[in-house]
Amino acid sequence: MRNRIIALIVCSSFGLNSVLAQIPELSSKEKKAGWILLFDGKTTNGWTTSDGKPVPSGWAVKDGCISTVMDGKGGDIVTENEFKDFEFSADYNITPGCNSGIKYFYKKYEKGGNLGMEYQILDDKLAEDNKKDNHLCGSFYDVLPPNTADKKVNEPGQWNTIRVVAKGFNVEHWLNGKKILKFTRGSRSYTEAVAKSKFSKAEPAFGMVDKGKILLQYHGGVVQFRNIKIKTL
């Protein structure tokens, strides 16, 4: 009981009214389906900075979660491995006003630097970057907005589950069991949306790479991630 109380106090110190997190473990069914954990709940093994350095002190691992640290020396972190066709899943929990995200197909472009397609994580009510539909939670950041009719986001301090399914050129964003965005990379609507975005000058065309890393974004706010897993399709 004492350890449970201490763990809850630690979560509260992050400003998150979360329940005690558990060390992630795949079920036998998940293992058989090909799922692998990208975060073991105890270490930063398998993660680096975008330039290959160790995970910085702006990130902390505690109680099965990997979290940004307020006013810490942060920086985004990425998987050591790249992925092509995949289904990705993770839980996240944010503080009020937080802005974060998870990027996929992240890699260095010939023109534009290191870029990735971002599943936007945002407090739609209080975050500063909530003025554009394609900047809201669940969007393909700065490119395509989510379907707000099907979107249900739990309040800051509560856990949400996201999924990204990428097979060939088809991509889906899911939030809490609901598909909120579907698009085809390279389609006319996709190309037109990218042309209006901040990624319009990327070479090759933004999002058209065949594989890339998964990135957890450090954007100054406090966000927790857990149950980070992926399977190849």
Characterization of this structure:
With 233 residues, this protein is mainly β. It has one domain: Exo-inulinase, domain 1 (Jelly Rolls), CATH 2.60.120.560. The protein is 11% helix and 35% strand. The strands form 2 sheets. Strands 1, 3, 4, 6, 9, 10, 11 and 13 form an 8-stranded antiparallel beta sheet that branches. A 5-stranded antiparallel beta sheet has the order 2-5-12-7-8, with no helix packed on it. The longest helix has 12 residues, at 2-13. It is globular. The model is unreliable at 1-13 and 15-19 (pLDDT under 50).
Q: Summary?
A:
With 233 residues, the protein is mainly beta.
Structural topology:
Layout: H1 2-13, H2 28-33, E1 35-37, E2 47-48, E3 59-62, E4 65-68, E5 77-79, E6 86-94, E7 99-109, E8 113-122, E9 160-167, E10 170-175, E11 178-184, H3 188-195, E12 213-216, E13 223-232
Antiparallel strand pairs: 1-13, 2-5, 3-4, 4-13, 5-12, 6-9, 6-13, 7-8, 7-12, 9-10, 10-11
Examine the secondary-structure arrangement and name the CATH architecture.
Sandwich
Structural class: mainly beta
- The counted number of beta strands is 13
What is the helical fraction, as a range of percent?
10-25%
Uncertain segments: 1-13, 15-19
Name its key features.
single chain; 233 residues; mainly beta; Jelly Rolls; 5-stranded antiparallel beta sheet
